């Protein structure tokens, strides 16, 4: 017997689409949530894109009417986390536009030399000089934040370096571990709950990857729905100690 939930947090790749391939059941699932008036956020560890870009892609290419307000990136979650920490207003960030725009939108300014925070995410043009500035600022006492721990990202060329690989270099050079924000850490999901003003018992995390999406729910105490349209397979889940709350072959099988 499944519960009724007041809000849904939903993964992207493998859950709402597979690479460039549409998942029709996912588009129908989003339409059913919208018809029922149930709030949802699409949660992505991708910090390179703005919510507007993510929403436009889903709407144009995957048959979903998604607004930017429905998108919550690890970049937005990182900026929200900095605001909650309230340690100062100056940031040195290694990352792309999606991350930097989110930080600026929360009223922070960038400072290479005396920042209160060093934030490291995926940066397609990362250089030794950027690593050097980040390392020295952390050594001077800046709080070290990592957007997410994904070591690799799949693309048409193979598994390319992800944000976690960039962050790992700064961890090595400073001998300090970053505080990670994105899935599977609870910071991002806790911020998403706060966005709706809900208790963790009132929302559910939907995803295809046990190690990121489902573990984010488990680490936060939020119920989870694993959909077998992407990364994790039933044989994988037989091996895990803590099972997802629910499992479905596709999202047509789920009643909202």
UniProtKB/TrEMBL annotation:
Positions with a binding annotation for Mg(2+): 11, 13, 208
GO cellular component, one term: cytoplasm
Residues engaged in binding substrate: 183
UniProt keywords, alphabetically: Hydrolase, Magnesium, Metal-binding
Cofactor(s) of this protein: Mg(2+)
Molecular function via GO: metal ion binding; phosphatase activity
Co-factor remark: Divalent metal ions. Mg(2+) is the most effective.
Residues annotated as catalytic: 11 (nucleophile), 13 (proton donor)
SUPFAM superfamilies, per database record: HAD-like (SSF56784)
Pfam families with a match to the protein in the record: Hydrolase_6, Hydrolase_like
EC assignment: 3.1.3.-
Function: Catalyzes the dephosphorylation of 2-6 carbon acid sugars in vitro.
Family of the protein in this entry: Belongs to the HAD-like hydrolase superfamily. NagD family.
Identification of the protein by name: Acid sugar phosphatase
Species of provenance: Loigolactobacillus coryniformis subsp. coryniformis KCTC 3167 = DSM 20001
């Amino acid at each position: 017997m499944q519960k009724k939930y007041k809000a849904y947090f939903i993964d992207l790749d493998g859950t709402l689409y597979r690479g460039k391939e549409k998942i029709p059941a996912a588009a129908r699932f989003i339409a059913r949530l919208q018809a029922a008036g149930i709030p949802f956020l699409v949660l992505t560890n991708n910090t390179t894109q703005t919510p507007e870009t993510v929403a436009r892609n889903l709407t144009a290419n995957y048959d979903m009417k998604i607004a930017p307000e429905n998108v919550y990136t690890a970049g937005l979650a990182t900026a929200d986390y900095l605001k909650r920490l309230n340690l100062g207003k100056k940031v040195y960030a290694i990352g792309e536009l999606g991350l930097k725009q989110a930080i600026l939108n929360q009223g922070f300014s960038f400072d290479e030399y005396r920042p209160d925070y060093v934030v490291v995410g995926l940066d397609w043009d990362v250089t030794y000089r950027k690593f050097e500035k980040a390392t020295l600022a952390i050594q001077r006492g800046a709080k070290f934040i990592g957007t997410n721990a994904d070591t690799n990202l799949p693309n048409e060329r193979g598994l390319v370096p992800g944000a976690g690989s960039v962050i790992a270099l700064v961890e090595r050079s400073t001998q300090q571990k970053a505080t990670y924000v994105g899935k599977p850490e609870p910071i991002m999901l806790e911020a998403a709950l706060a966005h709706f003003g809900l208790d963790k018992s009132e929302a559910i995390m939907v995803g295809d990857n046990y190690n990121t999406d489902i573990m984010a729910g488990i680490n936060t105490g939020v119920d989870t729905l694993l959909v077998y349209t992407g990364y994790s397979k039933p044989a994988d889940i037989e091996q895990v100690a803590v099972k997802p709350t629910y499992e479905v072959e596709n999202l047509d099988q789920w009643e909202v």
